[in-house]
Amino acid sequence: MDLLLYALLLALAVWGFRKARGSFERVRSRRRRAGLPGATADNPLVLRSAQVLEDARASVRCECGGRVQELGEATRVGLRVARGRCVECEADVDLYFVLPHMLN
Ligand SMILES: [Zn+2]
Fold first, then answer.
1. pTM score, two decimals?
2. What is the pLDDT, as a whole number, of residue 23?
3. What is the rounded distance in angstroms from the CA atom of residue 79 to the CA atom of residue 82?
4. Residues whose CB is under 5 A from ligand 1 (ion)?
5. For residue 30, is it left (φ>0), alpha (ψ between -120 and 50) or beta?
């Protein structure tokens, strides 16, 4: 009976550790992504050529590491937003950018 209890406690400890590690990884990924140009409206990507946007779209990943499917573009005051959705977890992943002439 004690062995069964220990096995259950061990399984719970492993499960808790994995859950905590996953949560830590998500936070770290979110912080890393937030520091990149285009991840937030406060730090938009300056679009000097169409290739810059294509490269950013191709390299952007969700917090979970999933690929991002393009959903089109939208505009906000002074910004343009490339909308995207993660193919793994279906989270919205937007890319904010400005055109150089919009900076003034
Ligand atoms: Zn995701």
1. 0.64
2. 83
3. 10
4. 62, 64, 66, 86, 88-89, 91
5. alpha
